[in-house]
Amino acid sequence: MTEFPWQFKDVQANGLVFHCAHLGEGPLLILLHGFPECWYSWRHQIVPLAQHFRVVVPDLRGYNLSSQPPDTRAYLLDYLVEDVVALARAWGESRFRLVGHDWGALIAWATALRHPYRVPRVAALQVPPPLALRDNLTPRQLWASRYIALFQIPGLAEWYLSDQDYRLVRSIFTDPTVRPGKITAEDIQYFVAAIKRGSLRAMLNYYRANFGPGLAPDLMTPIQVPSLFIYGEDDFAITPDFVYRLDRYILSDYQEVRIPACGHWCQQEYPEVVTEALLKFLR
User: Fold this and answer.
1) Is the pTM of this model over 0.90?
2) Are 66 and 33 in contact (CB under 8 A)?
3) Is position 264 annotated as part of the catalytic site?
4) CB-based contacts of 67: which residues, under 8 Å, 6+ apart?
5) Structural domain of residue 144, as residue ranges?
6) How many structural domains comprise the chain?
7) Which residue in 19, 40, 101, 102 is the catalytic one?
8) Which of these is catalytic: 22, 101, 115, 264?
9) 57: domain CATH number?
10) pLDDT 10s per residue in the chain (283 long)?
11) How far is Cα 30 from Cα 228, in angstroms, rounded to an integer?
């Protein structure tokens, strides 16, 4: 079994059990991963961030070793936001800094919108705020997001993603847009093993629960807390159109870091750049 310089703890929150990596002392900092990953996507950031914060990195509901509710509606963004607040409470805090990548980014934005008094600073990687998701949707982005249509089909999507020992999942970590050599075969195997421990159907339910009805109207408002956005400019899933002029959607202090020649997995492809930006902003 791989040894890590941090500890793990199962935490009861919002009626579920969340498997969390944790390290450090000080103000609470929660890191949220995306699809199809787990806490391991933040492996490069935990130690340096823990020099200044109490870092908690959960597996989201349905992922890896966290609880896996069977109902599709259990993955509505409403519940995902409350997971974050409940997790902070379980760690003894009512206020917390929040960072998210991919789905974790959308959850982070939504949490900052609904609980701005709890989130003094929010950072998001790759996925823009909800208002930008609406305003910046272009034909180019619709084409890049076409996989979401497949994800809506129960059974077929699960089969397609898991076929040949998750060949398609493995391929998105080795896409030509991804910085070579930064996500190893061992890393990819860890993510695949985490999917097998968790629930692929639950992971797909994030898309099934939220993209049909659309996001709640109260989320279609500007962000009111200091915000950092980090974007790898070669992302195969998030086009530059989608992240155009995000400063329009932030009513507080706004910082932005764009990384050329970086794909979707920015905190893994350019860990030093992302870590430095997070430390500068969060401190």
Assistant:
1) yes
2) no
3) yes
4) 16, 17, 18, 61
5) 7-282
6) 1
7) 102
8) 264
9) 3.40.50.1820
10) 578 999 999 999 999 999 999 999 999 999 999 999 999 999 999 999 999 999 999 999 999 999 999 999 999 999 999 999 999 999 999 999 999 999 999 999 999 999 999 999 999 999 999 999 999 999 999 999 999 999 999 999 999 999 999 999 999 999 999 999 999 999 999 999 999 999 999 999 999 999 876 788 899 999 999 999 999 999 999 999 999 999 999 999 999 999 999 999 999 999 999 999 999 999 9
11) 15
